[in-house]
């Protein structure tokens, strides 16, 4: 029996090959990378609160809406900051706010999914030649 051959990264189609678990893993890696950058360079230089919120909500998507306090703790954004940024994301139809929680809308989920696929695709090609 022959071993299956893993296709070269350049042959992968990030739009069809990647499962939700792959996208969640990518989101978690981006979150970890952003935290490392914030520790090394300071949050003032690297802070993108809406990205942090969107990634956190994407990771939590299967478990339902995330409470504001939980979201604030997960993103290191103050509670007033969370509320301000959630209003901005809601105005863009990326999230909805049931009570004192937030979740991605279908549009928000689709846009974060597309963004994560784009990030993964960018890592599968050489940019430094």
TrEMBL record:
Could you tell me which InterPro entries the record lists for this protein?
Answer: WH-like_DNA-bd_sf (IPR036388), WH_DNA-bd_sf (IPR036390)
Q: Which Gene3D superfamilies match?
A: Winged helix-like DNA-binding domain superfamily/Winged helix DNA-binding domain
Q: What is this protein called?
A: HTH marR-type domain-containing protein
Q: Please report the organism this UniProt entry assigns to the protein.
A: Sphingomonas longa
């Amino acid at each position: 029996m022959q071993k299956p051959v893993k296709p070269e990264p350049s042959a992968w189609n990030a739009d069809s090959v990647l499962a939700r678990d792959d996208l969640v893993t990518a989101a978690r890696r981006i979150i970890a990378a952003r935290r490392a950058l914030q520790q090394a360079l300071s949050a003032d230089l690297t802070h993108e609160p809406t990205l942090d919120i969107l990634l956190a909500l994407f990771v939590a998507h299967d478990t339902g809406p995330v409470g504001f306090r939980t979201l604030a703790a997960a993103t290191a954004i103050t509670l007033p900051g969370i509320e301000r940024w959630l209003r901005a994301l809601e105005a863009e139809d990326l999230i909805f706010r049931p009570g004192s929680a937030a979740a991605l809308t279908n549009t928000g989920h689709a846009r974060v999914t597309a963004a994560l696929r784009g990030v993964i695709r960018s890592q599968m090609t050489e940019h430094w030649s």
